[in-house]
Write a structure and sequence with these properties.
Elements: H1 2-21, E1 25-31, H2 38-50, E2 54-58, E3 64-70, H3 71-78, E4 87-90
Antiparallel strand pairs: 1-3, 1-4, 2-3
Helix pairs in contact: 2-3
């Protein structure tokens, strides 16, 4: 019983340690110029997934996608094509109504 308690404690500490060293993730929108080939978008999405990121959605009216990624992978995605540079911006809520600061 003492051994299993020690193993649970050890695995818990390992999980906490891994979380502490994991790069911070942020939600972003990645959009490309209209003339960007589909292959470049596909390559960017594959790079996000390979680095442990997540594709949250794909756009149909514009070329791009929403993702949760680390800042390091964004540098790699941006460098995939010199002629078709993506625009990367933080994904956030945008409203047209003034909000009362007490309601936040």
């Amino acid at each position: 019983m003492k051994i299993s308690h020690s193993l649970v404690t050890l695995f818990g500490l390992i999980a906490i340690g891994n979380a502490a060293f994991a790069p911070a993730q942020r939600q972003v929108l990645v959009t490309y110029p209209e003339d960007t080939p589909h292959s470049i978008l596909q390559e960017a999405k594959e790079a996000v997934l390979a680095a442990g990121g997540k594709i949250n959605g794909e756009f149909t009216l514009i070329k791009g996608f929403a993702a949760t990624v680390s800042s390091e992978i964004l540098d790699s995605v941006t460098a995939l094509s010199k002629s078709h540079r993506p625009t990367v911006e933080d994904d956030s809520v945008v409203t047209i109504q003034k909000q009362d600061p007490l309601e936040e």
